[in-house]
Design brief:
This protein has 171 residues and is α/β, with parallel strands linked by helices. It has helices spanning 18-26, 37-40, 48-57, 74-83, 124-127, 129-137, 156-170, and strands spanning 3-7, 32-36, 60-66, 100-106, 141-142, 146-148. The structure holds flavin mononucleotide. This is General stress protein.
Length: 171
């Protein structure tokens, strides 16, 4: 199985702990290709043909990112607008049909805050509904998301454990 891990972190190599470790761990798995999207497109000028070609190779697509304001960093939204185009991903053609989509997200907040009776008043899975709906609309198969909580205050051992779990999910 070919897996494309598309990482959307504005400072993956300089300001990230969790996503950098996860991306490195993912890169050790056979059949996994990792793309640092912000490094490729720091000015948001996305090469749509190159992205679509990378997607065509994959059987499984992973969108990996830190949660920013209860959603993804901005480049993923721009990427969706540009890359998931009419006539390619939906409408008259469904290039991603049958591929698996997995969200891998790190959240600064701990798990208890993401409950309807918690501080944020919402389940974490509800925040991912736009991505789930996108998967459905483009005929991709929605995989169980991979979530790392408490990502701003995380020990080395917890990062290591998250990486091991991530590698298992990607194998
Ligand atoms: C602009 C910004 C917005 C953030 N918004 C959220 C948020 O809505 N929910 C949350 O749990 N954490 C939030 N965080 C914390 C990040 O998710 C956290 O720092 C990140 O997952 C850590 O991963 P990293 O080490 O790869 O950067 C935010 C951080 C920044 C910089």
């Amino acid at each position: 199985m070919n897996t494309l891990v598309e990482v959307f972190h504005p400072a993956l190599s300089t300001g990230s702990v969790v996503n950098r470790a996860l991306a490195q761990a993912a890169g050790t798995v056979d059949g996994v290709q990792v793309r640092d999207e912000y490094a490729l497109y720091p000015n948001f000028q996305i090469d749509v043909a190159a992205e679509q070609e990378a997607l065509a190779w994959a059987d499984r697509i992973v969108w990996q990112f830190p949660m920013y304001w209860y959603s993804s960093p901005a480049l993923l939204k721009q990427w969706e607008v540009m890359v998931l185009s009419y006539g390619w991903a939906y409408g008259t053609n469904f290039a991603l049909e049958g591929k698996e989509l997995m969200i891998a997200v790190s959240c600064g907040a701990d798990r208890d805050k993401y409950r309807e009776d918690g501080e944020y008043g919402v389940n974490g899975s509800d925040l991912l509904l736009p991505f789930k709906t996108t998967a459905r609309y483009t005929k991709m198969q929605w995989a169980q998301p991979f979530v790392v909580h408490s990502a701003m205050n995380i020990s080395d051992a917890q990062v290591q454990a998250a990486c091991e779990e991530y590698v298992q999910r990607l194998q």
